[in-house]
Write a sequence for this structure.
């Protein structure tokens, strides 16, 4: 079973899904791991509180790129709250293999970047709504 998950990771690395940029994203965000040099940046489109599309760019190891590709697939159709509620256990399940603490940072980097963008967009929307109610 472990070989199946390793092949899935390699497939997402070799044939990365969701790589690119968007012309008019709802959010853009990125995260960097200084201990290994991995960097991942996400852009996404959110409509009515639901993730419609997510893409990423970056540099780094197989695990960070595969995790970013898998995560972008995984969150499509999720609500913002669901994305923000994802954690380490969800990423472990998504990649399907056990990794040590150092490599886990590579797996979590895409989640950190994505959640930062969704959170910032959510806060901005709340502020805009509040101004609209007052104005």
């Amino acid at each position: 079973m472990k070989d199946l998950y390793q092949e899935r990771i390699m497939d997402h690395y070799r044939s990365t899904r969701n790589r690119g940029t968007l012309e008019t994203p709802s959010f853009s965000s990125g995260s960097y791991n200084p201990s290994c040099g991995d960097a991942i940046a996400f852009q996404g489109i959110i409509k009515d509180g639901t993730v419609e599309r997510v893409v990423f760019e970056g540099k780094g190891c197989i695990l960070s790129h595969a995790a970013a590709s898998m995560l972008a697939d995984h969150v499509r159709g999720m609500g913002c709250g669901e994305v923000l509620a994802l954690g380490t256990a969800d990423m472990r399940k998504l990649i399907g293999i056990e990794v040590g603490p150092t490599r886990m940072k590579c797996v979590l980097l895409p989640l950190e970047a994505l959640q930062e963008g969704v959170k910032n967009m959510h806060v901005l929307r709340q502020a805009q709504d509040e101004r609209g109610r007052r104005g």
